[in-house]
Amino acid sequence: MFRKLRDDITAVFDRDPAARSVWEVMTCYPGIHALIFHRFAHWLWGHRLRWMARFVAHVSRFLTGIEIHPGATIGRRFFIDHGMGVVIGETAEIGDDVTLYHGVTLGGTSWNKGKRHPTLENGVVIGAGAKILGPIVIGAGAKVGSNAVVTKAVPAGHTAVGNPARVLDTSEQGRQRQAQAEKMGFSAYAVGRDQDDPLSKALHALLDHASETDRRLEILLKQLAAAGVKCDEKVQSTEHFDREYLSKIVD
């Protein structure tokens, strides 16, 4: 238990630049307090002292604002940043090096007995206010954006955002869309190909067309340069997109 506590404190220094000393972490970090209570409550739960375990968890919730069921399994170097409003259900399983921000819920979607809460594999990061619901698996190294509502598994190393959450496009085409969107002055954040929203499809078509146009212009300029045609004159670009309007319709 003390070895895990030492690892948990080390994780705070690794992930929170505001941490100044071990004494400050031990006395002022509710995430560490909640973990200390949980390690003890989980030990009681494992020894079938269920009421005592629930009572310790209840006291922890009252003191820290973090609710962790004593039946939840938590790995090493777990870090809860700020912590207020975090809820972790009974059958939740959390691996090593996981980070949760305030307002995160690892909840269930069923009243049936058995596995009904999420599994977070090693290195997962869950943003503030995100809700991970049901017996799903968030793969190793995955990230969940703030206020996302996740009800389906997230593959390892991927990022899920939005409500309902969608896994961001990590293909080459997806990266080209993101780069083109940044040039236009807005972000294609949370726009997914698997949606039936005609606005989303129109935005995808726009970004794909702009990306293809840039690619063709680059090829044309290279061919002109190879033919000895100078193209050094700078042409003033014109803004064809109303940035504020695009931001509104994307939101």
Describe the structure in brief:
Helix content is 41%, strand content 13%. With 251 residues, the protein is an alpha/beta fold. A 6-stranded mixed sheet has the order 3-6-9-12-14-15. The protein has a 5-stranded parallel sheet with strand order 1-4-7-10-13. The chain has a 4-stranded parallel sheet with strand order 2-5-8-11, with no helix packed on it.
Description of the structure:
By secondary structure, the protein is an alpha/beta fold. 41% of the residues lie in helices and 13% in strands. It is built from seven helices and 15 strands. It has helices at 2-15, 22-28, 30-46, 50-64, 172-184, 198-226, 243-250, and strands spanning 67-68, 73-74, 79-80, 87-88, 93-94, 99-100, 105-107, 119-120, 125-126, 131-133, 137-138, 143-144, 149-150, 159-161, 166-167. The strands form three sheets. The protein has a six-stranded mixed sheet. It has a five-stranded parallel sheet with strand order 1-4-7-10-13. Helix 3 packs antiparallel against helix 4 and helix 5 (172-184) packs across helix 6 (198-226). It is elongated, with a radius of gyration of 24 Å. The two termini are 46 Å apart.
Strand content: 5-15%
Please outline the major beta sheet: 6 strands, mixed
Extract low-pLDDT stretches.
186-196
Q: What integer value in Å does the Rg equal? A: 24 Å
How do the helices and strands line up, and which of them pair or pack?
Layout: H1 2-15, H2 22-28, H3 30-46, H4 50-64, E1 67-68, E2 73-74, E3 79-80, E4 87-88, E5 93-94, E6 99-100, E7 105-107, E8 119-120, E9 125-126, E10 131-133, E11 137-138, E12 143-144, E13 149-150, E14 159-161, E15 166-167, H5 172-184, H6 198-226, H7 243-250
Parallel strand pairs: 1-4, 2-5, 3-6, 4-7, 5-8, 6-9, 7-10, 8-11, 9-12, 10-13, 12-14
Antiparallel strand pairs: 14-15
Helix pairs in contact: 3-4, 5-6
